[in-house]
Automatic annotation (TrEMBL):
Residues 4-249 form the NmrA-like domain. The lineage of its organism: Eukaryota, Fungi, Dikarya, Ascomycota, Pezizomycotina. Keywords: NADP, Oxidoreductase. It comes from the Eukaryota. This is NmrA-like domain-containing protein.
Length: 322
């Protein structure tokens, strides 16, 4: 029997990282370990993971590459689900992974489909990391997931799903007809567990999906399942574009200010998804992505309808509730 590969996960306590951790453990084919900063090693969430038999490695991401390479010794696959504010810290991690002979690095992607420059700051910074990976010829896989089911459905008048949603204004963007790739948060880790051992995905971009839906279709599904009529607020494509431009201008005054970065992220997501219509299968394939559903036809993802029904039944969970 072949020895299990060691997968080291960075960002295991975040929303995406938690899904990846569960997917890796569920697959039962890896030695799963997590990487945390010294300041996080004693946190309850980390201790809870360790109590499940997951080995802990500790390192300061700002350390020199040679020190980080020692921490990465023996790692076969490195998966990063680092937060957006720290995305560029992965560049030294790339050098360390190369020096430590890591077989495959999966940098923190896990967002919507978008062009590599000039539309979304978040994608632009991720591309800096991807370019460093390519410069050093480090084997890798880039995985994007579209938008989560859990942050895509509107509230209903009765308030039945308020506990499970982060969307409270029920906005229809542009004409509501832009198709968008959606993946249930819980399926991200299940997809990752398959993708990272597949030779077909080595040095490739891959996208996952559970559904491809427009906002109009999303609202119709929620109305059908809930039996409630949703009052919609409309915002024009021109307004969305201006909001993205204004947020970028505000951010340029202090690029490291989180209070300015997050409004820029949100407005740029809306512009990319609903005005440019980047987050759809056609554009993903145009950019060279592989379709995970085509790679794994037996994979049965959680549908958007199932996710909404769970929320209506009181079985949902609000992302970022921690």
């Amino acid at each position: 029997m072949a020895a299990k590969q060691t997968v080291l996960l960075l960002g295991a306590t975040g929303e995406t990282g938690s899904s990846i951790l569960e997917g890796l453990l569920e697959a039962n084919q890896f030695n799963v370990e997590i990487l945390v900063r010294p300041s996080s090693a004693e946190k309850p969430a980390v201790k809870k993971i360790v109590s499940r038999g997951v080995r802990l490695r500790v390192a300061e991401l700002g350390a020199p590459a040679d020190e980080l390479a020692k921490v990465l010794s023996g790692v076969d696959i490195l998966v990063s689900a680092i937060g957006p504010q720290d995305c560029l810290q992965q560049k030294v991690l790339v050098k360390a992974a190369k020096d430590a002979n890591v077989e495959r690095f999966v940098p923190c992607a896990f967002i919507t489909i978008a062009p590599p420059k000039g539309v979304m700051l978040l994608r632009d910074e991720k591309e800096e990391v991807y370019n460093e990976i390519k410069r050093l010829a480090l084997n890798h896989t880039i995985i994007d997931v579209g938008y989560w089911h859990q942050i895509s459905f509107p509230r209903v008048p009765s308030g039945r799903v308020d506990y499970a949603t982060v969307i409270m204004d029920n906005t229809i963007h542009a004409d509501g007809n832009a198709p968008n790739i959606l993946t249930d948060l819980r399926d991200i880790g299940r997809f990752v567990a398959r993708i990272i051992t597949d030779e077909r995905t080595l040095n490739k971009y891959v996208y996952t999906w559970g559904d491809v839906l427009t906002e109009n279709e999303i609202f119709s599904i929620v109305e059908e399942l809930s039996g409630e009529k949703i009052e919609k607020n409309y915002v024009s494509a021109e307004t969305i574009e201006k909001q993205a431009q204004d947020a970028a201008a505000e951010l340029s005054q202090n690029p490291q200010d989180p209070s300015k970065r997050y409004p820029a992220y949100i407005s740029q997501y809306q512009y990319s998804k609903y005005v440019r219509q980047d987050n759809r299968p056609w554009y993903a394939k145009f950019l060279g992505y592989l379709d995970a559903r085509e790679l794994y036809p037996d994979f049965k993802p959680i549908s958007f309808r199932e996710c909404v029904q769970e929320a209506l039944d009181g079985k949902g969970r609000r992302p970022y509730s921690g």
